[in-house]
Amino acid sequence: MQTSGGTAHDIERVAQAIRGPVRERFGVELEQEPVLLREAVKRAAAAGLVSILPKRGVLVLDATTEALRECFQLRCVFDQEGARILSSCAKQPALVTLRHNHEKILEQSQSGIFTTVLHISAMHMDWALHRYLAQALQNRSAMTIYEENCDRINVLQHSRRPLPERIVPAM
After folding, report:
1. Residue among 130, 162, 161, 160 at smallest CA distance from 147
2. How many CA atoms lie within 13 A of 82 on its CB side?
3. Which of 6, 45, 94, 159 is the most exposed place for a label (fewest CB within 10 A)?
4. CA torsion, points 22, 163, 71, 151, in degrees to nearest 10?
């Protein structure tokens, strides 16, 4: 069902959209805990990821240009400040590891063979780098905002089909 803010979905479609963020943020699988699905939908609604439409379904955050711009612009703020802080520190072993893994994924993606495993590895690498930069702030309030923004980005990313041609430019 189309609405002005997106598409209303049944609970299974919503579960699919929020499964990743719930697993990553809370370490649980929605399939194993059906009660958690209702709670996850309530929390997702409180965070603005979905809107509950009584007796009609759930409206998942629509991947509009504006929504994507806002989320990635906020992430950029964390990235820049984290990079600024880290640039004044001694060599960071974790950053060396991130760079090595990044280069490995870039090399694999440049071969032109895009697999699901490669796509998932690239996404995890991307999230690891952004998390590392955000954690450099050492600010709990900022991390709360960062985590909420990550949830929004994750939902937005799951509302679009993955495109292998995005991997190389992103890397």
Report:
1. 130
2. 21
3. 94
4. 0
